[in-house]
Design brief:
single chain; mainly alpha; 4 helices; 88% helix
């Protein structure tokens, strides 16, 4: 029973870990990350990193795997969000320069 629960929890954890892909899709569709808190994502990343380290120390795949996936997807989400922030800032700067 414990092994089955561990497998179910780890499987659900992987689904939770990939759920930010929905946010990535939204950013790509809108060409904006303005409504996303990068600070919030960074706090989550620290938590995921700690859980990865804990799972590794226990050699527990049910902890390690979903948190590793969550960490990697989180990094991708932050990178995409920052790129949209940079491109949005560059576009605003370019627009202001054209007006001057």
């Amino acid at each position: 029973m414990t092994d089955a629960l561990g497998l179910l929890a780890a499987s659900w954890g992987v689904l939770m870990a990939i759920s930010p892909i929905l946010q990535i899709r939204r950013m790509l569709d809108r060409h904006s990350s303005a409504d996303l808190s990068i600070s919030f994502l960074c706090v989550l990343q620290i938590g995921f990193a700690l859980w990865v380290a804990y799972g590794l120390s226990l050699r527990n795949a049910a902890i390690f795997v979903p948190n590793s996936v969550a960490f990697l997807v989180g990094v991708a989400t932050i990178v995409i969000a920052l790129r949209y922030r940079e491109s949005h800032g560059d576009a605003a700067h370019h627009h202001r320069a054209e007006e001057a």
